[in-house]
Amino acid sequence: MCGGRGLCGLFRRSKCRVPACFSGWEVSIMGQRQSLQTILETLLGSRNVYFQPPATLRMQYPCIVYSRDRMDTKFANNSAYARKISYQVTYIDRNPDSSIPDKIADLPLCQHKTFFTADNLNHDVFTLFF
Predict the structure, then answer these.
(1) Residue 90 pLDDT more than 60?
(2) What's the DSSP call for residue 19?
(3) Average pLDDT score over the chain
(4) From CA 36, how far away is CA 75, in angstroms rounded?
(5) What does the alpha-carbon distance between residue 9 and residue 7 come to, in Å, rounded to a whole number?
(6) Are 68 and 47 in contact, with CB atoms under 8 Å apart?
(7) d(CA 57, CA 41)
(8) Cα(5)–Cα(119) distance, integer angstroms
(9) Exposed/middle/buried for 38, CB within 10 Å: 0-12, 13-18, 19+?
């Protein structure tokens, strides 16, 4: 917490003295997530794509729900040199024979984890590094 109510870089003028290599990382992560949002909306063919939705949200089906899962970091010379954020992506539909799970599985660095039904809805769960 530096010079404001949040992390450095959230305000135009920050009193923090962080190395320049750290400035703007929040923007690039947000940009990546927005790109993923657009890709998922295109695959689904609708705007029923929800990022970490609150429990009170009434979702429209079929839909995709996704959230951050973990970060994979590669190291060399005792330093991190590459990071990939993984997302848990869940496709929810009443139709068990939908072709959308195949389209999601075709995304690069995507792996199908499990399938289950709940409340008469079919759920395909994927891990996607993006």
Answers:
(1) yes
(2) -
(3) 83
(4) 25
(5) 6
(6) no
(7) 18
(8) 41
(9) exposed
- Yes or no: say if 92 and 63 are a contact pair by the CB < 8 Å rule: yes
The alpha carbon torsion through 54, 95, 91, 105 (nearest 10 deg) reads 180
SS3 content of the chain, % helix, strand, coil (to 5): 20, 40, 40
The per-residue pLDDT for range 9-65, each reduced to its tens digit, is 444 444 444 344 433 444 455 678 999 999 999 999 999 999 999 999 999 999 999
In the block, residue with structure tokens 């409340």: 119
Instruction: Classify burial at 65, counting beta carbons within 10 Å of its beta carbon; exposed 0-12, middle 13-18, buried 19 or more.
Output: buried
For the chain, what is the radius of gyration of the CA atoms? 18
How far is the C-alpha of 60 from the C-alpha of 83, rounded, in Å? 33
pLDDT mean over 109-113 = 96
Give CA–CA dist 95/98, Å, rounded: 6
Angle at 73 between CA 19 and CA 89, to 5 degrees: 115
The C-alpha angle with vertex 52 and arms to 94 and 58, in degrees rounded to 5, equals: 50
